[in-house]
Write a structure and sequence with these properties.
Elements (H helix, E strand, L loop, with lengths): L1 H15 L8 E13 L6 E12 L8 H11 L2 H12 L5 E3 L2 H8 L3 H13 L3 E5 L2 E4 L9 H12 L3
Antiparallel strand pairs: 1-2, 3-5, 4-5
Length: 160
């Protein structure tokens, strides 16, 4: 009976953990045939040409404005801190502001802001660059197009 209970506990724990899918979708488009010259032999060869485009996959589309309005209605103080940060991100996915600044602007106590900022960092939503300077994880939240996101994601991943 003890072994069964442990298996059940493991299953519940696994259900509560979010695992990011590792697959993406690709769009393959046949462009036609083209003649190429082999650099070594000088021989002409006709080859099929395709274009492979990586696409974002395995995500939910969220209309942030509607979600934030809803969370504001049902949310608690910690959600309001997260919403404030999301609204204040610059085009580089950065938030510039101290805990005290957030507390003053939101009317939420400094201890609650500090606890929330710690939780946002622990969950990999934010990374702290230095006091008052944070970067939001572009895999979690990004406002803009795919190429802009990829540029910010690269800098985020490299810790720049």
């Amino acid at each position: 009976m003890s072994a069964e209970r442990n298996d059940q506990d493991d299953n519940v724990t696994n259900l509560n953990k979010y695992q990011k899918p590792e697959k993406t979708r690709k769009k393959v488009k046949f462009l036609g045939t083209k003649e190429f010259i082999d650099a070594e032999t000088g021989e002409k060869q006709e080859m099929q040409v395709t274009d492979i485009e990586e696409r974002d996959a395995n995500f939910h589309k969220i209309w942030l404005g509607h979600l934030l309005d809803t969370l504001d209605l049902i949310g608690n103080k910690k959600i309001k801190v997260a919403m404030f940060i999301m609204n204040e991100l610059n085009k580089e996915n950065q938030f510039l502001g101290t805990h005290r600044y957030i507390a003053e602007k939101t009317g939420i106590s400094l201890p609650t802001v500090t606890e929330t900022m710690g939780a946002l960092q622990d969950s990999n939503f934010l990374i702290k660059v230095r006091n008052g300077f944070y970067r939001a994880n572009p895999d979690v939240l990004f406002k803009g197009g795919k190429s802009e996101r990829m540029n910010v994601l690269l800098r985020y991943t490299n810790g720049e």
